[in-house]
Amino acid sequence: MKLRILFALLLLFTVSLGAQNLGNLDFVNSLGDREAATYGDAVTFFMLMENRAPGGFEANVAALDRLKITTGIRAAENTLLDRGMLALMVSRYLKIVDSLLYLISGSGRYAFRACAEQGIMDSDASEWDVISGEGLIEVMAKVSAMKEAEK
Fold it and tell me: pLDDT, tens digit, for every residue of 74-117?
């Protein structure tokens, strides 16, 4: 619960979408209660991270494809989100280039390992583990902090 409140405040201060912030907070709060996050949840989160108002799923994926975040990931909106898929999106978003195996393969397996080395994800987990809503919030809070530190 504290994590959701902290992230909601972080989101409120870092995402400048004006009146839509209340909708964003509702999204984060409802996500935190779910046992499993979906690919659609991750896509929506990345739209928020890019300071873009989320639209329909297909439009969001097209926008993130242009940014090379979701390129090559062809999953349905309601597909359960595993750590490998999320790590692939995070690695592209943060432009993680210090993992040779990830750079060579471009796979979720090595993206997960690169994210674990960066402290973004727990190294005790597997890239095949489905991530919870609260887990997605936690990862995205770390991603947001890292992106802010780049500026």
Answer: 999 999 999 999 999 999 999 987 777 776 777 788 899 999 99
Instruction: Please state the pTM of the whole predicted model.
Output: 0.82
Total residues found in the chain within this entry: 151
Cα(54)–Cα(71) distance, rounded to whole angstroms? 18
Q: Which residues in 13-51 are b (16+ Cβ under 10 Å) and which e?
A: eebebeeebeebbebbbebbeeeebbbbbbbbbbbbbbe
Q: What is the DSSP string of 78-132?
A: TSBPBHHHHHHHHHHHHT----HHHHHH--HHHHHHHHHHTTSS-TTS-TTSBPP
What are 33-42's pLDDT values in tens digits? 899 999 999 9
Amino acid at 119: G
Are 10 and 28 a contacting pair, CB within 8 Å? no
